[in-house]
């Protein structure tokens, strides 16, 4: 009820002073929306749910499936049978993108298209708040990290169709291996080195593999930042320098690294020096939303455009809606506070684990280059008993 044309009719029902007061309340919410549209950045303070729903409802009203009296007769008209499903998606039914580009604007869905563009802007702002200022473009894709890496590999392969190998410093997560084979490529596994308690990638062996294999047949090096201890993040700058020298792409798996300043520093340093091409991070691991989304970012907008055009068909808007709502709800202050508190909790957890391990003759491994994960030994009688208990079959 913020339309001035309505004022004479409203005053017949309620005194004008009350109407003006009510309009001021509504206007304050519209001012927040105006600032968001103008700056396209995460608001300083988180919004309340009512303001977020107001924006979502107004955007949804711009999609043709929500036009009063509209009767769609085409192939995709945003038909939804269940009212419960319709409300779950805030009446956004068209998804995002078009058949040739996941970032393309939809003629029948101006509101969904705006939502998608805004969400990508907010995510890029969150990346910068995390400490990576050198990435200039990104796209949210409605798949988890492993499949997002596959999409990146397929996009890069379009640029280098003769390539069939991916140099991969080993990390023991199945999806990291399968994302390579799913793209029809062959992983060349580089074993890690043990330095103290830490497992670190063998940079010299990466260079050796690139020397022994024809570089024209190597698509990229797939390096990793966020990983399980005792594995530690790869030296992205060193690996990126090797990639540049041999003329291969550098793809980075930064799955849950946005929440960690050390991982972000590694990505930012390599990106700033032009030593990485694409970096992938998970939405659920970094922003506390349901599983199903990933963020592909790059210092090169043309690569993000290439990735967007590689995705086949339209895509679900659900992960985009989730992260859009979440970032508006968090605000810049809320997000910064979460980053700060995570560091405190990590220090506390490591301290308590160290104390507990000592009581049983075990120890926490010293992995100072891994600021996310903590590993504990399972040696001696206590450790062997724990292993036996974990591996022994049960009747249940």
Q: Could you describe the 3D structure shown?
A:
With 396 residues, the protein is an alpha/beta fold. It is built from 14 helices and 9 strands. The strands form 2 sheets. Strands 1-9-8-7-6-2-3 form a 7-stranded mixed β-sheet, with helices on both faces. The protein has a two-stranded antiparallel sheet with strand order 4-5. The longest helix is centred in the last third of the chain and has 42 residues, at 318-359. It is globular, with a radius of gyration of 25 Å.
How is this structure best summarized?
The protein is of the alpha/beta class. Helix content is 49%, strand content 11%. It contains 14 helices and nine strands.
Query: Which secondary-structure class do the elements indicate?
Result: alpha/beta
- Strand residues, percent: 5-15%
Measured between the Cα atoms of the first and last residue, the distance is 61 Å
**How are strands sequenced across the largest beta sheet?**
1-9-8-7-6-2-3
Largest sheet: 7 strands, mixed
In total, how many beta strands? 9
The average pLDDT is 91
Radius of gyration: 25 Å
Helix content: 40-55%
Q: Please give the count of helices.
A: 14
Low-confidence stretches: none
* Global shape: globular
In N-to-C order, the SSE pattern is HHHHHEHEHEEEHEHEHEHEHHH
């Amino acid at each position: 009820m913020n339309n001035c044309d309505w004022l004479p009719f409203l005053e017949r029902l309620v005194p004008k002073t009350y109407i003006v007061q009510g309009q001021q309340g509504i206007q304050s919410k519209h001012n927040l929306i105006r600032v968001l549209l103008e700056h396209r950045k995460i608001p300083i303070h988180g919004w309340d749910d009512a303001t977020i729903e107001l924006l979502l409802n107004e955007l949804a009203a711009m999609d043709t499936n929500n036009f009063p009296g509209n009767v769609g007769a085409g192939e995709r008209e945003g038909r939804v049978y269940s009212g419960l499903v319709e409300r779950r998606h805030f009446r956004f039914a068209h998804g995002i993108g078009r058949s040739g580009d996941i970032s393309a604007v939809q003629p029948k869905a101006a509101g969904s298209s705006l939502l998608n563009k805004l969400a990508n802007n907010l995510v890029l702002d969150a990346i910068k708040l995390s400490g990576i200022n050198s990435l200039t473009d990104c796209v949210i894709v409605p798949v988890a990290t492993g499949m997002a890496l596959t999409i990146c590999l397929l996009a890069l392969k379009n640029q280098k169709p003769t390539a069939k190998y991916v140099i991969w410093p080993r990390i023991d997560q199945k999806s990291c291996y399968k994302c390579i084979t799913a793209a029809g490529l062959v992983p060349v596994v580089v074993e890690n080195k043990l330095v103290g308690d830490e497992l670190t990638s063998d940079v010299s062996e990466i260079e050796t593999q690139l020397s022994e294999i024809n570089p024209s047949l190597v698509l990229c090096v797939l390096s990793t930042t966020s990983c399980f201890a005792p594995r530690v993040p790869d030296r992205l700058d060193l690996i990126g320098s090797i990639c540049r020298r041999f003329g291969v792409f550098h793809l980075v798996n930064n799955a849950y690294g946005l929440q960690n300043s050390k991982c972000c520093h590694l990505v930012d340093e390599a990106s700033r020096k032009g030593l990485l091409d694409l970096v992938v991070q998970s939405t659920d691991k970094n922003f506390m939303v349901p599983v199903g989304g990933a963020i592909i970012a790059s210092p090169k907008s043309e690569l993000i455009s290439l990735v967007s055009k590689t995705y086949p068909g339209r895509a679900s808007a659900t992960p985009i809606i989730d992260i859009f709502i979440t970032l508006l709800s968090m605000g810049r202050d809320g997000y910064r506070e979460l980053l700060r508190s995570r560091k405190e909790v990590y220090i506390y957890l490591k301290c308590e684990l160290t104390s507990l391990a000592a009581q049983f003759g075990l120890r926490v491994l010293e992995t100072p280059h891994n600021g996310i994960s903590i590993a504990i030994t399972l040696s001696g009688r206590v450790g062997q008993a724990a292993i036996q208990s974990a591996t022994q079959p049960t009747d249940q």
